[in-house]
């Protein structure tokens, strides 16, 4: 047996869930119930099986169940290709987040090597309308699914840049203080650029020739107008050195991979995503998630685990049926939330259905 799937999930004092014990099937999982019952908390816990702060980007302390404030723990059994892994991640005693894989302490980067997890949440619906920060995070989450080292490269770049910015703010002009930091930024920045370019290429190839009801988009990594960025380690290092006078005046690093933005054009219409209707923007996002899944099925050997929060709420019945069909055809384990069972009527009969009540009870429901 091969593939990528969460087999068991155990929660302790995570968000609204005092305890949760869930055995999962490999295919689609529909989670429904009233608002506030804790549906999103379940898929947020699953998102913590990958590097980073999860689908809400919350601080670890914010995930602690109140009023007990005892810390939290997530334990999972994960099938990753031909291997079965036991994963634990937890917070206790005011310390940072801990990770253990197969009984041994591990880094968050190690999670990215065995699990590929993508998500789509309602806050992303305005992705094409708001600032570049959100689009850059969306891009980097997709990049991370292809290259687990992308997380470490991003952390290295940002840490070095923060130290450089401190020098700039303090008006330090001695070049000696900058060289080592800029070398670190250049090396990590070049790796970030390469990984992003490879991801864009992989997504384009996954969209080519795909039979899908969701629209294709042409993606491009762009920079703010007037802020061109050098490409490659040596060119980046030279660029950082040359920009010191301007950066000193601004008190921060003005240009570099941290200023990149993601542009998307609705291919069939030749219209930028930000100019599309709300429904079209949602469809473009779903299309990219599905393309990412198809690309990973080729490169990783299995599609990612998908976390789709309230994804069906703003889709008509035909689009919902098309989405469920594509998820099933992809072979992905997709956890989908919604308020009503009827939102999943067109989901295959063998899909897992879970009803979550306001009393923290979860029951598996057989389809009608």
Protein described:
This protein is an alpha/beta fold and 368 residues long. The protein has helices at residues 39-47, 108-114, 132-146, 150-169, 176-207, 233-242, 244-250, 278-299, 317-330, and strands at 4-14, 17-23, 29-32, 72-80, 83-91, 98-101, 104-105, 117-120, 217-222, 261-266, 271-272, 305-308, 334-338, 352-356, 362-364. It folds into two domains: 1-116 and 301-368, P-loop containing nucleotide triphosphate hydrolases (Rossmann fold, 3-Layer(aba) Sandwich), CATH 3.40.50; 131-299, RecF/RecN/SMC, N-terminal domain (Glutathione S-transferase Yfyf (Class Pi), Chain A, domain 2). The chain has nine helices and 15 strands. The strands form three sheets. It has a six-stranded antiparallel beta sheet with strand order 2-1-4-5-6-7. It has a six-stranded mixed beta sheet with strand order 8-12-13-3-14-15, sandwiched between helices. Strands 9-10-11 form a three-stranded antiparallel beta sheet. Helix 8 packs parallel to helix 9 (317-330). The longest helix has 32 residues, at 176-207. The mean pLDDT is 93.
Descriptive keywords:
six-stranded mixed sheet; six-stranded antiparallel sheet; 2 domains; Glutathione S-transferase Yfyf (Class Pi), Chain A, domain 2; 37% helix; Rossmann fold; 368 residues; 15 strands; alpha/beta
